[in-house]
């Protein structure tokens, strides 16, 4: 059995059960509280300062594709220098208002916070802030009393989602529900589950194992996350028992959903190898008990856990960047060492080239025009012998001799330089190895940045260039604003700077097997990596660099982490009569980068 410090890190989600428990805490603290301030530190986060029952609380809403959540936080985030449009709208409709209700939509990851505020005419106007916490589709949406969208953190156009637009003025519709799923809080929900899955009379060993039960729970019960399904299955099948499986499942069901209906939560902080990695409303069987601690509130545990996760994600991103930079520098040094060794091998033949030139001068009469080789007596050898000398048929005999003398001079002159450069190259390879080991041993972002700064100062790696510095002009874009970047690996990256430029780049300049990138769900430039027909050969570092450029050329350029979709150009289609820059994509993958 593995020791606790050898176990893999858990991924504790913010699922429907966690949201339900958070709402229970928020209702007790914030109902009838006044929204005194609205802050939006980046494109995907909104902070509400709420004064309630004599205390101030900071409520965080995050639509981050990886860290989407809602809970109270202990710190006040800084504002963007220029408030985004969504922040302005939220201030107009929420600041000064009173929170009337906080509720969950069914058992889904959707929270609706209702605020009542007096209008200029003195009438009470009710505005809803809807948080859809659904991974990469997460969003924050302001909804008017008439049900129309006021604004959203991520505006979703028809070109991005044909079925559900999220734009100002459009009627708000909830995300599609999972049809046919059982509501876990309905009476007799567990009986329906047992009947529909055929487990009432099943006593086979296969039906009494955790994995099939987990899959059935996830596919049958509404709002059932993989983590929650695994928790119920683990509690059911934790040990062999004489009790029938339906009885054990009912007990596990009661421990989770029964306690939830009674609001008998036990907020638990879950620890990893380096610190808190998450929180859950109940102790979990998916982590060792030694890695779980009781928490004073679920919000405080989530605040600590997600802060650590975000710091770790930032650390992993910086560590990956440093690792790739050092690896590229090491590859370059290895190529340079190989080239210098070849130069030294050539310099060792310097005297041989000189002797060849002198032998040719002594035997010009033997060489006929067009000869490719000549065999002469080698009087430089210690023992009398013959030597065959290769010739260039395009040159005269005398020119062939001069060519050998030039090779002699080049080899002789380059030997000293090559030895000096080889010594420096070997030294740099050692320094790169030391920097790599330091990077692997670094424990925080500050140490990684210190290692990178030292490597830059020593000339081991290049300082990251801003896109404006790296951009190269390309004259033949027919007046369209398209920029070209060249990576250190030699790949070309093209960026459209306007809608028409995006259209021209995607439809006219891009080959079917080039890689095409776009920031998920928001307005951004179209970015293309020229692959030469070999997209599978494009290094990860090039893809990440293109994704960062794409993020910088989007409305999410100030975000800490941006989700960028990428696919092959042949999977990008422009609908008929669609406006410039509008496309539909298929088979996309998502890459998260820091602009």
Produce the secondary structure layout.
Elements: H1 16-30, E1 34-39, E2 45-52, E3 55-62, E4 69-73, H2 85-94, E5 98-104, E6 110-118, E7 124-132, E8 139-143, E9 149-152, H3 189-196, H4 210-220, H5 226-236, H6 245-261, E10 268-271, E11 276-280, E12 292-294, H7 298-347, H8 350-362, E13 373-378, E14 385-390, H9 397-441, H10 445-457, H11 467-470, E15 471-472, E16 482-486, E17 492-496, H12 499-509, E18 515-519, E19 527-529, H13 540-552, E20 562-568, E21 572-573, E22 584-585, E23 589-593
Antiparallel strand pairs: 1-2, 2-3, 3-4, 5-6, 6-7, 7-8, 8-9, 10-11, 10-12, 13-14, 15-16, 16-17, 17-19, 18-19, 18-20, 20-23, 21-22
Helix pairs in contact: 4-5, 5-6, 7-9, 7-10, 8-9, 9-10
What can you see in these coordinates?
This protein is 37% helix and 20% strand. It contains 13 helices and 23 strands. The chain has helices at 16-30, 85-94, 189-196, 210-220, 226-236, 245-261, 298-347, 350-362, 397-441, 445-457, 467-470, 499-509, 540-552, and strands spanning 34-39, 45-52, 55-62, 69-73, 98-104, 110-118, 124-132, 139-143, 149-152, 268-271, 276-280, 292-294, 373-378, 385-390, 471-472, 482-486, 492-496, 515-519, 527-529, 562-568, 572-573, 584-585, 589-593. A hairpin with a 6-residue loop joins strand 13 and strand 14 (385-390). Helix 7 packs parallel to helix 10 and helix 9 runs antiparallel to helix 10.
Class by alpha and beta content: alpha+beta
State the oligomer: single chain
| Strand order in space, largest sheet | 15-16-17-19-18-20-23
Distance between the termini: 42 Å
Shape: elongated
Fraction in helix: 25-40%
Biggest sheet descriptor: 7 strands, antiparallel
Task: Supply the number of helical segments.
Answer: 13
